[in-house]
Write a structure and sequence with these properties.
Strand order of the largest sheet: 4-3-7-1-2-6-5
Number of helices: 2
Order of helices and strands: EEEEEEHEHEEEEEE
Structural class: mainly beta
Helix content: under 10%
Number of strands: 13
Oligomer: single chain
Strand content: over 45%
Distance between the termini: 41 Å
Length: 171
């Protein structure tokens, strides 16, 4: 079983396809079909409710993707999987490019201002239309800092576990 902190959300089972247990997928990999190369999958319908699956086969179908999961050979069995998130171990993914980061690698980093004021730790990251946003928590306070390298995010040092930001600690 994968360590909970070292996995990446790569897709979701979103529907049924046919009567032989195939499911429709939403994939957030690039390209989207790469989701099939990252296995085993860890399916999660709720915290603590997980199943690990190896040997998934799939293909593009129309505008989406479809997959056949081992042991799922009927529509009823497939229906129970709809809505489940698909995670894979972080180490299965290719290394990020220069100045690129997987969100899971940013979680837990200590965040300090350019003046050395501690703001807390990265709780999580989320996407907006304009840019990603880093959520920094210090126990009592939550700050939302745009993940714009050069402007707000001055440096990220994964080996030191630290992110330096140009941010007003009072904001």
């Amino acid at each position: 079983m994968m360590a909970a902190g070292r996995r990446v959300l790569v897709g979701r089972i979103v529907g049924l396809y046919g009567v032989q247990g195939w499911v429709k997928l939403e994939s957030w990999t690039e390209p989207r079909t790469r989701i099939f190369t990252y296995q085993p999958w860890q399916l999660s319908s709720a915290p603590g409710v997980e199943a690990e699956i190896t040997g998934v086969k799939g293909r593009p179908q129309g505008k989406g993707l479809i997959a056949q999961l081992p042991g799922v050979d009927g529509r009823e069995a497939a229906e129970a999987l709809v809505g489940q998130d698909i995670y894979v171990a972080r180490e299965l993914l290719p290394p990020p490019g220069k100045d690129e980061y997987y969100w899971v690698d940013l979680e837990g980093l200590e965040v300090v201002t350019t003046e050395g004021v501690a703001l807390g730790r990265v709780s999580h990251v989320f996407a907006t239309g304009a840019n990603d946003v880093v959520v920094v928590k210090d126990g009592t306070r939550e700050r939302l800092i745009p993940f714009v390298q050069g402007s707000y995010v001055r440096s990220v040092d994964l080996s030191e576990g630290r992110m330096v930001v140009d941010w007003d600690p009072e904001f």
